[in-house]
Amino acid sequence: MNLDNLHANISVVAQSPDLDPESVDVVVTLPTFKRPEHLLKTLASLKAQVTKRRFAIIVMENEAEKREGAEAAKQLFEIGEYTGLLIIAHDRGNCNAYNAGWLTALKMFPNFSSLLVIDDDEIADASWIENMCITRQSYGVDFVGGPQLPVFARQEHAIWSAHPVFSPHYTQTGIVPIIYSSGNLLIGRNVLEAMPFPFLDLTFNFMGGGDSDFISRSVVKGFTIAWCAEAPVYETIPARRVEADWIRARALRNGVISTLIEKRKRADEPFGAAKTVAKSLVLLALSPFRAVVKVAQTGSLSIGIYQVYIGLGRVLAEFGYSNEQYRQPEKN
């Protein structure tokens, strides 16, 4: 396997000695940034997968200086504990890391049919790979999404599991119109071969939402999606993420992303920009009423006010507001 000239901003720093690229049917991409301890837990959950499918892992280290994740995992790849590659994605940012891993998969593994994505703060269920792939085959789709179930660092925070920031968008397996996250995702090779590179738009590099935008653009091109409720990953939620300012920032960010994606979808429509603005204003105007309903349904003021922040974020996007939560990872 030729590792030279993979890409100017990608370096391969380790590979498993028994790697046979042509035999790999599934590639799992795993971006990491300053979470070396949890990265090892995520890798261990991948090694524990119950499947006969031949899969390889690509870890994308996105901290190009200290490389804590790469240092923690390098020897494990070199001794064959894990099958696959460890790369450095030298350009910082969420989108750059994903782009590096997905491009590497296309260039290094000529016969894979499905690419899966998991984050370095998640643990895969033992049947994750198998159930995601079975769902793709059963429904004949191009994407499969699965639930990211929160595991809170403090037990008393478990009451937050019903909050829309943490709860899955769907509960049953089947065809769905859209999914919003790459934290638990399967992408068909055919999608990556059809979509332009860079796959994820760097506009979203430190904001997040590049995955939602990519999926949205793919759906416009005719690619289809299913949901697999039987393929969860378990996301570790630090105490920081249930603080009011983090929830508020995430909600505003989600509203901004919603506007940016809708603008792109309507770019070629007559009065598309005006329609997006009008929808944002209507959603903001309705958000207090929706908030009251949600509070009555759930008893949670935070779930209610989330509706208002989404509407506000949509309108703020029209004025150039962007909340780049990933710019300062220590606060995320």
TrEMBL record:
Name listed for the protein in its UniProt record: Glycosyl transferase
Gene3D superfamilies the UniProt entry points to: Spore Coat Polysaccharide Biosynthesis Protein SpsA, Chain A
Chain ranges of the Glycosyltransferase 2-like domain: 28-151
Keyword field: Transferase
A Pfam family per the record: Glycos_transf_2
InterPro entries: Glyco_trans_2-like, Nucleotide-diphossugar_trans
Organism expressing this protein natively: Phyllobacterium sophorae
GO molecular function: transferase activity
CDD domains xref list: Glyco_tranf_GTA_type
